[in-house]
User: Fold this.
Amino acid sequence: MRGNVDDDAGPAESVPEVWTGRATNRAQWPLAALGAASLALGIELAVDSDWTSGLAPLLMSVIGCVAVGLLILFGTLAFVHVHVTVDRDAVEVRCGHVGLPRRRIPLENVVGAYFAPRVTPHEWGGWGYRWRPEKGTAVVVRRGEGLVVRLGDGRKFTVTVDDAEAAVRVIRYRLGRIASSRPAAPQS
Assistant:
């Protein structure tokens, strides 16, 4: 899905009230299926087991399959897609079908935004919500273009999203509006 900024319009006209973008990673669906299969195996063992070796091995198998299944299932479904919204007040990032994890960054805390043409899961240590001391925090759901937001405290937040260049234009426009609305410092 492309962002909704029209490049042919004038500067004020090209910035919508709310910009939205998203990115999807369909490659994680097989992992979610693996999690569901593990969960189903755990349930099957619990319901239809004729184990004669005792209750402890059965409980360990059931609990193990259910726990692994839930971790894989929810861990992958949370990062199948990401939804980014830029409005007058903030940049908001919501992950997965439930919208969690969610991060809201007020524009008053943002000092800049730039386009990253190639963000890869490899550079961040995998898919998902990531943190690297030298790079900052990121939500990586797929390889490709991304939005990088620089915060006033020096940290960076990166998110993979389609049409990240449009998001950068909207954020920069909003930051310019915020800067022009602040009162000027008194001159000595």
Observations:
- The helical segments are 29-47, 55-77, 121-124, 164-181.
- The longest strand covers residues 110-119.
